[in-house]
Specification:
This protein has 338 residues and is of the alpha/beta class. The protein is built from eight helices and 18 strands.
Length: 338
């Protein structure tokens, strides 16, 4: 009977960061799974962007690549991380994305993999990029999606470790013409959607050791989900607090069970829903809603944490004022209007 074991090897990156990679996975897959911002585009050996240098240990080519390494690169022990797997503990040199500003804006023709309607006004849309042009982005960022000239901007709900499959949470709003294409069923599986991005600065402070507090208003859960799952993939041990504001007329937030499931994978995770007096019109009393959210927070935790908020701009302004007046330092506040 064949040996089905899959040995795990340790990879030391640039003499400081370590991650584990199974022998049957490419080094690129292992690094992305652990949340590393590795420079890559295609993940199939076409572009050469994911080149690394082997310093110590043994690797093996596990799939063909069309990209041709020069004689000098081969002599320098350079290789493509997307096409090689470890065969022992190894040390490599590899350039990582420095910060969000260094990621280029990309234009990609994607296809809709599937659309799942949670209820009458919320759709979970999954797009698939071509293998030759995977989206490079950081958790918390957003993109523009366009279909037959209709363009809207949405945050990515998935983690960067799943670059070929991108998830979006899209509300059925009259002012959002792209959403109307979805809920009228004109936009269906296999349809082509142009993606332009990534954009935005709503990203994780990966080196911070402070507790992390996340606050989402309704569909603001999408970028929060991306950030939380990225933190988990990085194996960050910071305590996580998540507050989710939703309309009091509804029984619970639309992905309540999903948010609760994080308790199973994080040692210190605290989740609280906040039923608020708002609907999804543009006529909400944003000051009142911001005060409802503010009054529900544990302020002792808030003032010693990194605070990430995804909410409408007016709610952000009022909530930010409450928090700063209560002693929160402005450097601790990371916000994204939706």
């Amino acid at each position: 009977m064949a040996n089905m074991s899959n040995q795990i090897f340790n990879i030391q990156l640039n003499n400081k960061q370590n991650f584990e990679c199974p022998e049957n996975d490419s080094i690129l897959e292992g690094g992305l799974r652990h949340g590393l911002a590795i420079n890559y585009k295609c993940s199939n050996g076409t572009c050469g962007t994911c080149k690394a240098k082997l310093i110590e240990g043994e690797i093996e080519k596990i799939k063909h690549h069309d990209y041709s390494l020069s004689t000098n690169e081969i002599d320098n022990k350079e290789f493509l991380t997307c096409c090689h797997a470890p065969r022992a503990d190894i040390k490599i040199e590899l350039d990582l994305i420095g910060d969000v500003r260094s990621i280029p804006i990309q234009s990609i023709q994607t296809k809709i993999k599937d659309i799942r309607f949670i209820n009458d006004d919320m759709a979970i849309v999954n797009l698939r990029t071509p293998r030759s042009q995977t989206l490079q982005f950081m958790a918390g960022q957003d993109v523009e999606l366009s279909f037959k000239g209709v363009v809207s901007r949405y945050p990515i709900a998935s983690c960067p470790c799943h670059g070929m499959e991108l998830e979006f949470h899209i509300r059925n709003l009259n002012i959002d013409k792209f959403s109307q294409e979805i809920f009228s069923k004109k936009l269906k599986a296999k349809a082509r959607v142009e993606l332009v991005g990534p954009k935005g600065m709503f990203v994780l402070k990966e080196t911070s050791t402070k507790p992390m507090v996340f606050i989402a208003w309704d569909g603001g859960f999408a970028p929060i989900r991306s950030l939380v799952e990225h933190a988990f993939s990085l194996e960050m041990t910071n305590p996580v607090y998540f507050y989710w504001a939703y309309p009091a007329t509804e029984p619970s937030p639309y992905f309540d069970n999903y948010a609760q499931s994080w308790r199973a994978v994080m040692d210190e995770y605290h989740y609280q829903t906040i039923a608020c007096d708002f609907d999804r019109s543009s006529k909400n009393d944003c000051h009142k809603v911001a005060k409802q959210i503010y009054d529900s927070l544990d302020h002792k935790v808030i003032n010693q944490s990194e605070l990430y908020i995804s909410a409408p701009a007016e709610v952000l302004i009022y909530l930010g004022e409450f928090l700063l007046d209560n002693g929160l330092d402005e450097s601790q506040l990371i916000a994204s209007p939706i």
